[in-house]
Amino acid sequence: MGSIGTGQQDHAAGWERRGHGPREPVRLAVFQGELDATSHDELASTMRELLKAPDPIIVDLSGSRFCSASCIERIAEWAQRAKTMGIDFSIMAPRSIAQCFELFEPAPHVIPGHRPLTAGPERRFVHIYTV
Predict the structure, then answer these.
(1) What's the DSSP call for residue 86?
(2) Cα separation of 106 and 59, whole Å?
(3) Which domains, from first to last, does the chain contain?
(4) Res 101: pLDDT
C-alpha cells in the first residue's frame, strides 16, 4: 500500500517491510446473548483463561443484548487486574453498555458502538480466539 500519486510508493513499501516486526497475538473473547447473574461463573472462568497469557485482550460485548451491572463491574475489575499485570485490555460494546464502564475509576478502555463479530451459533455464551 503506497501513497497514491505522491511518488512515495517505494518509500511506503519499504516502511511496511520494516514495520514493527511480527504482529503480536491478541486474545479475543466474544460474548453473545445476555450476561446476568447466572453468567458470573462462566465470565470469571473466561477472564482467568484470558489472563493466562501476556497477550493483549479484547472482550467483545457487541453481540450482547443485555449486560447486568454486576457483570459490567466484574469485567471492569478484570480489566484493572490485567492492567496491573501489564496486559492491554480493551472492551468493544454497544454504546448503552459502553457508557456504564465510564462509571468505574479507573475506567477500562472501551471501544463503543461496534457491530457484533460473528462467533458461531448464538447458543454458545463465549468463544475465545487467539488472532
Answers:
(1) T
(2) 17
(3) 25-130 (3.30.750.24)
(4) 93
